[in-house]
Specification:
Length: 188
């Protein structure tokens, strides 16, 4: 079958197209997505491309192992629409191109701040540039930690650490951050 609700046996993620208002669903290792305690959102311009299949699969695997659900978006615009309707705690992982527009979307929806914010950048030169940019965020009025990781292994460690933090439980989440505020990723 094709279209909305299409199921595939091995992939464990949900992808949304910026051209459609309804996301295309793929099977989850967690049979009922509502049972997932958290979600990892990957916003990457190339997330649907065949050359990203290994990365997508690796991220999906780490999320399933950690009891979460996985959603990927090509563009920050789709992420912005998602944060308006999302409910569970989430981690946001972006590529270098989508991090800035995603931060802008978060500024517009401070009640939906992620418990983890990371940039997945395997290219060492671009990773160094992104890390310098992230370190400069406080001078721009954004006091949030943006992790720059080179691979899914580093992302796995960040997710494991973040999930053990006291604010992880949705019942215990602190007030969310604004661009000058405070929250799980921010310091005043």
């Amino acid at each position: 079958p094709t279209g909305e609700g299409r199921r595939q046996p091995r992939e464990s993620f949900e992808c949304a197209s910026p051209t459609s208002s309804v996301s295309e669903e793929h099977s989850f290792a967690i049979a009922d997505r509502s049972l997932a305690a958290w979600r990892l959102v990957w916003c990457c311009e190339r997330c649907h491309k065949p050359e990203e299949a290994q990365t997508r699969s690796s991220i999906s695997g780490l999320v399933v192992e950690a009891g979460g659900a996985f959603t990927c978006f090509k563009k920050a615009k789709s992420f912005e629409a998602w944060i308006e309707r999302g409910r569970e705690p989430y981690a946001l992982v972006c590529d270098g191109r989508e991090i800035k527009p995603c931060l802008t979307a978060l500024e517009a929806s401070p009640a939906r701040w992620p418990f983890l914010l990371a940039v997945l950048q395997p290219d060492p030169k671009l990773a160094a540039r992104t890390a310098r940019w992230a370190q400069d965020l406080p001078r721009q009025g954004l006091f949030c930690q943006v992790h720059v990781v080179a691979d899914v292994g580093q992302l796995r460690s960040l997710v494991a650490d973040a999930r053990t933090a006291p604010f992880f439980s949705s019942a215990a989440l602190p007030p969310r951050a604004t661009f000058g505020g405070h929250g799980p990723n921010c310091m005043q």
